[in-house]
Amino acid sequence: MQKLGWPFLPGRNIRIERAAGVCLFTDDERQIIDAAGGAIVVNVGHGRERVAQAVADATRNYTYVVPPWLTPSRQAMLDVLGTHWLPETLSRVHCTSGGTEANEAAMKIALHYQQAIGQTQRSKIIGRSIGYHGTTLATASISGHPGRKEGLQHALPKFPEVASPYPLRCPLGSFHENSGQYYVDLLADIIASEGAENIAAFLAEPIIGSSGGAIVPPEDYWPAAAALCKENGILLIMDEVMTGFGRTGSAFAHEHWQLNPDIMISGKGMAGGYAPLGGVFAREEIGQAIEQAGFQVMFNTFGAHPAACAAAAEVLSIMVEESLVERSATLGAYLHKQLQDTFADHPHVAEVRGRGLFAAIEVVANRESLEKFPRASQVSGRIVATGLNKGVFYYGGGTGEVRDIVCMGPPLIITESETDQVVSTLAASVDEVVAKV
Ligand SMILES: Cc1ncc(COP(=O)(O)O)c(C=O)c1O
Questions:
Q1: What's the CA-to-centroid distance between 435 and ligand 1, angstroms?
Q2: CA nearest neighbour of 423 among 353, 364, 350, 341
């Protein structure tokens, strides 16, 4: 048999035989708490029979049907989305097979819309300095993720970039009271320098995902940034691939600031990891304008796959039946309290941050000066590896100048005692690693 290279680039590769609830089990029967929910995906936990059954039924009963047509599973997903999840303003739905495709589609929809309404000069989309939107050339380029652009810079399309809010390291001072306005002013500056009349949209995560490590902006940032977009005819695209569907303790993270995005993107938790699925949700007016202009919103062959929609319908129903959004808020508050209690005075933890069951710590060489450990020390990678050896899987984060981030996004069914284990193992892993740096 030919020896195949897997993964494509060599890395740590353990073998998981099965998973149940919040736990993964290796081939040698080691139990690992999945504090990352995979890649912050597994919202309702692993191994739900009911979801597996729905996926099997869809596959058996209507294996593949072109994306624009309905199937019972697509209808079931739309019903639960419309009844329990989507804001009333977002009525047009386009499904992809993941977050990257959804972001790419959303960018094209924004450009199409501006063309359709006669704003033909609006060809630019503003991205931010810390953030992640996907793997294609356009979504990688608009991402604030230098690590994932290395070796590609010469070929990437260009997007204007504005600084992401990063209160801990705000140039005005850590958690400065004017930091929200500071970052909004930077957005205003870029709109002025690029020319509002040339800008189609602003693409951002409401709470920054693993690239920044659950960075929550200052409270006044989003309301002012959203208003600025609106005043200037710039569509607000919220990437909720990581934060959507309950992860941050509300249905969607933008709701923390009562925002009204023009387009919202989802992925990950939408089908809870049971199948690949991404979603683009847009205002009615956007769909209508594109429709009237006769532009195409082309599907991906596997977008809205019937089995993935079946998974989403079940996962999102379970979330409602078991009040998992509320649970994300309450268990999230518990997780944050435990993290604060553990790390409040820790000499190497600069910040515990996040919302709901999405949390991260930023590890530093010096907590007072915020000096970082040298990149070569690979502190967060080592913490993740140490945690894994101790039986907890964390999600490493950071990119470029943002480093030594450890993220948590466990299944929303995690218990208090499992949460305690996640926190105590993290503390032990941080201590073990920094003692050796
Ligand atoms: C905020 C955000 N957007 C987009 C993506 C890309 O989604 P996918 O990996 O499903 O293509 C990710 C993946 O981590 C993400 O976190």
A1: 33
A2: 341
CB atoms closer than 10 angstroms to residue 279: 30
DSSP string, 269-287: GGTTTSS--EEEEEEHHHH
Domains of the chain: 16-47+323-436 (3.90.1150.10), 50-321 (3.40.640.10)
**Pocket of ligand 1, candidates 104, 145, 238, 241: which has the most ligand atoms within 8 Å of its Cβ, to mutate?**
241
* Helix (H), strand (E) at residue 402: strand 402-408
Q: Check if 351 has its Cβ closer than 6 Å to any atom of ligand 1.
A: no
Q: pLDDT (tens digit, 9 = 90+) per residue, 344-380?
A: 999 999 999 999 999 999 999 999 999 999 999 999 9
- Cα gap 310→56, rounded to integer Å: 9
- Does the pTM surpass 0.85? The reply is yes
pLDDT digits (tens, 9 = 90+) for 45-80: 999 999 999 999 999 999 999 999 999 999 999 999
The neighbour count for residue 17, using CB atoms within 10 Å, is 11
Tell how far the Cα of 346 is from the centroid of ligand 1, in angstroms: 31
- Which amino acid appears at position 4 of this protein? L
- Please measure the distance between the N-terminal and C-terminal CA atoms of the chain and give it in whole angstroms: 42
Give the pLDDT confidence of 304-320 residue by residue, as tens digits.
999 999 999 999 999 99
Nearest to 375 by CA among 413, 353, 405: 405
User: Ligand 1 centroid vs 406 CA: distance in angstroms?
Assistant: 17
Q: Is 147 helix (H, G, I), strand (E, B) or coil?
A: helix
Q: Is 311 in the pocket of ligand 1 (CB under 6 A)?
A: no
CA 100–ligand 1 middle distance (angstroms)? 6
User: Is residue 248 lining ligand 1, measured as CB closer than 6 Å?
Assistant: no
| Residue type at position 41 | V
Q: Is the CB of 239 under 6 A from ligand 1?
A: yes
